[in-house]
Design brief:
Largest sheet: none
Strand content: under 5%
Number of helices: 8
Number of strands: 0
Radius of gyration: 27 Å
CATH topology of the largest domain: Rna Polymerase Sigma Factor, Chain: A
């Protein structure tokens, strides 16, 4: 396929790509930028396209990957870096240390529900909550991993039913 034919075919998908860009970004200016980046990449990397394959899918893939890469880049840019000595401001606790009465009641209700579980569900659930891996729990009680996963799942399900008000 010649360069002129390729460019014409790419431009035929411009409006469809524009709608796709708008669905990804939800912002018309960002969508225009994404569309432009996609078209530029398609033209620059024309030699990577294999004739007799789906050009539209290739263009959509370029756009999706460009969007994902731009998003990841923007997340990294928005990270806060504290350059102060001893990282003082980053390590200051954000709460006052005093819990509200409502949160104390909530914690009591949650603990009461956990204590109400049968021992075969409660112990694996608490161990998993404390950070133990499935394999460690299974080894400790000489159970198959599937049984441990099942018991933790059942404990969660029972707790969610009992604690519907906290959702």
């Amino acid at each position: 396929m010649s360069t002129i034919e390729f460019n014409n075919q790419v431009l035929n998908f411009k409006s469809a790509l524009g709608y796709f860009a708008l669905s990804l970004t939800s912002n018309s200016e960002d969508a225009k930028d994404l569309l432009q980046d996609t078209l530029v990449k398609a033209i620059v990397y024309k030699d990577k396209f294999t004739d007799a394959t789906n050009l539209k899918a290739w263009l959509y893939t370029i756009m999706k990957n460009t969007f994902i890469n731009n998003y990841r880049r923007s997340v990294k840019v928005n990270q806060i870096i504290d350059n102060t000595k001893d990282l003082y401001f980053m390590n200051i606790p954000q709460n006052s240390g005093v819990s509200s009465p409502v949160s104390q009641i909530s914690i009591k209700d949650i603990n009461k529900s956990i204590d109400g579980l049968s021992e075969d569900l409660k112990v694996p659930f608490q161990m998993f909550f404390e950070g133990y891996k499935y394999k460690e729990i299974a080894d400790r009680f000489d159970l198959p991993i599937g049984t441990v996963k099942s018991r933790i799942f059942l404990a969660r399900k029972q707790l969610m039913n009992e604690l519907k008000d906290f959702r």
